[in-house]
Amino acid sequence: MRIANFSRSQRTAIVQGIQCVVSVIAIMQLWLFTTTMEAYLGGEESFVLPAALASLICLGLNLGLFHYLRALDR
User: What is the mean pLDDT of residues 48-52?
Assistant: First the structure.
């Protein structure tokens, strides 16, 4: 994956935007974990698998953004 040469101010803006997105995804994962545990402990086991899949998707998004940041740093 080839990343275009960005100026320092452009890179800063990109990194700050990615940090905001990662923060939102992390908060979403915490909320997802909390609601899943509440449902599971309340006897609703049907939410566990879909919640785990959604959490894996969030993890994939965060890993993809991390990979983009590493490529941007090169």
Answer: 95
